[in-house]
Amino acid sequence: MKIRLGISLLLGFILTCTLVSLTAAQNTFETADELPLDDSVTKVLKESDSEYWWKFTTTCDGSLTLSTQADEGIDYDLCIFDSMKHELALLTNSCSEASVTLDDLSEGRYYIKVNRKEGSGDFTITTDFTPASMQNDS
How many domains does the chain have? Predict the structure, then answer.
């Protein structure tokens, strides 16, 4: 009886630890990592990463050029959304390098989703934000 209880407790502990590590590893729209403007961030995309999310915030109107560079063999799609989850841009079947420019962005929060289709390794994402030369009238 004591052995069964001990085994049950051990299995429960292992299951709990596994669920906690799986939950912590997930990255979603709601838990997106902050992506600084005019900077680069590198993430190791693993086989267990089917998608990865970043978010960035603009404080004024302008345009954003988003560039990616991935290790050879990584195949991915890149989607950009506004805060209401409306798709603004989509790059499909991207491999080692991709780039997209979004003109006429308004001040606000935006999201980037990378769908990793195959491969693993380093994935670098770079932002280049250019404020509008003249702000819109209020």
Answer: 1
